[in-house]
Each structure stands twice: as C-alpha cells, then as structure tokens.
Specification:
There is one protein chain. By secondary structure, this protein is of the alpha+beta class. 37% of the residues lie in helices and 25% in strands. Strand 1 and strand 2 form a beta hairpin. The protein is elongated and about 55 Å long. Pfam families: DUF2922.
Amino acid sequence: MARQSALTRNQQWPQAFIEATATHAERSFYMKQLDMEFKSEAGKTKHMRLNYAAQDLDETTVKTAMQTIADLKMFEIDAVNPYALPIKAQYIERNVTPIFGSEEDKQLAKAAQE
C-alpha cells in the first residue's frame, strides 16, 4: 500500500473536528519562563525554572540573584550544593494551546452532570 501524503490524510478529518480546532486555537496562551542554569558541587548541570518571573530582568539582576542562591546553599542535599555555580540564564518562551481540560470544559462537564 502506498503512503498517503499529509494533505490526503488531512482531507480525511471530519469538518466538525476542523471547526473545533479553530475554536481551541483561540484559547491558546503565551508563557515566558526564566531558566537559570547552575553547576552543582558534584559537577552536574542543574536548572531552576521560574514560571512567574518578571519579564524584563537584566543581566546584573539575574546574576546577582543566582549568586545569592549559590552562596546561601539553601538547597544542599547530603552536603552537596546543587546550585553551586551560576552558568547562564535565559527566558524560555512557550505557546500553550489546550486541547481539552480547560476551565470552560470543566464547567460544561459539571453543568451536564447536574
């Protein structure tokens, strides 16, 4: 059997699915995450990711914060600091598009049960 092209496969989707897909795309949201990379005292790479960090942090601010985290040794496990040496920091940008399970979907399901 010959392989179908992506176009041919996509044409087989029901129209209702295609229309529903458009409404879900409208519910997508954008998120920026601060990713701070450290080296542990054991030489391993360790990341600390913050979902709700300010979106306009400069290099000096982040370096100072990372060094403070390293100096405090507040996450030490078995006398090994996993965040011993700040390496780099970056923002990771994501666009999340829910398929199902949104608050609106939960409310509709609850109403249907009543």
